[in-house]
Write a structure and sequence with these properties.
Distance between the termini: 42 Å
Pfam family, one: FAD_binding_7
Strand order of the largest sheet: 5-3-2-6
InterPro entries: Crypto/Photolyase_FAD-like_sf, Cryptochr/Photolyase_FAD-bd, Cryptochrome/DNA_photolyase_1
GO biological process, one term: entrainment of circadian clock by photoperiod
Mean pLDDT: 93
Helix content: 40-55%
GO molecular function: deoxyribodipyrimidine photo-lyase activity; DNA binding; FAD binding
Number of helices: 17
Radius of gyration: 21 Å
Cofactor: FAD
Order of helices and strands: HHHHHHHHHHHHEHEEHEHEHEH
Largest sheet: 4 strands, parallel
Number of strands: 6
Amino acid sequence: MNLAVAPAAAFEPTLEAAQARLHAVSPADYARTRNHLEGRVTRLSPYLTHGFLDLAAVVRHLRDRHQLPPQHKLLQELGWRAYFQHVWRHEGERILQSRHPGPLPDEAYSRELPADLREARTGVAAIDLAVRALYRDGYLHNHARLWLASYTVHLRKVHWRAGADWMLGHLLDGDLASNHLSWQWVAGTASHKPYLFNADNVAQFAPAAWGCKGTSVDVPYELLDQRARQPQAWGPEPGEHAGVVEPVRSSHPPAQVFSVPDAAAVAGRDVWLVHPWSLGEVPAGALPVAVCDVDAHASWPWAQARWRFVVSRMQALTPLRWIGSTQALVHAMRTARSVRGWRNGHLPVAWNEVGLAAPPPAFDEPAGFCRSFSAYWSRVRVLHPSPQTEGDVS
């Protein structure tokens, strides 16, 4: 099976590449073409997830450079990212559980992805090409993510959590809040109804080779909705279909790039903490120390392409790169005069003891918890003013 979409331009793990991509964003083109697989989407997500750029600076840049009104579609989509973080802050690990019942009870779904899906040989072109693109690029257009998640949950009857965990490890932009809550939205456990797609939807937004005529998704939405509420699984398609090998995922980066924590190296120094979700600029005068917390990664293995993306940036930022448990790393940091850096939900909470700060908010954060995006967005549309801060990506 030939891929109809050429391999995406590589995500270079440099601040220059991130800023170039930001400056190339066309909000008008985004709004007009974003639903098409070949549309002008921003492709900023790996740089946002790993902290090359912070969301607040990106929002300021786009709003000020392009004079975007608060209701512009691009700002709203960035608002979804902020909303998922809002939910994560309020619900914590509960985002890893169904927020409310979906079309079927949780126990009706399998906890294992079938081999044909993992190996891109389901016989549904849009699904097989999406899986291949995921493995090849570490990235998927949002529409392809929705199709893949919908097929996995509603036709193959795989629990959304199994699909979300699998996809997270292969995405360069894999973020627990955005990824897992998006899968829940598709599954109908964080939304009012399941997200469904059919062959006509694929034909409208994808290249011809992604077409799904004559397959299990080539049916009306009414029938898809019925199938979503029935325990019977649909697929794979009859016949033999050539597949691919799933890339190996690992909980550890290349060992030779890191050393054990060395408290003496930071004793009495002002440290800036570099971690996989904070790979932006280092403030002047600070000693950058990169850490790989094995406890943070134990349950979330990554494909080697993602490890290379993160580690390459760490190598460019500092020669001090440590690997160890949360306890060992935090203990070593206590000899420093000060430790600064950005807090992140992927890090164990013990890191908050060393003085990490919350990243600057992109939108005015509601005081209370909003259970829906519409409630959240109606309360955050007034953006923060544009402070002239050092390192502003604009």
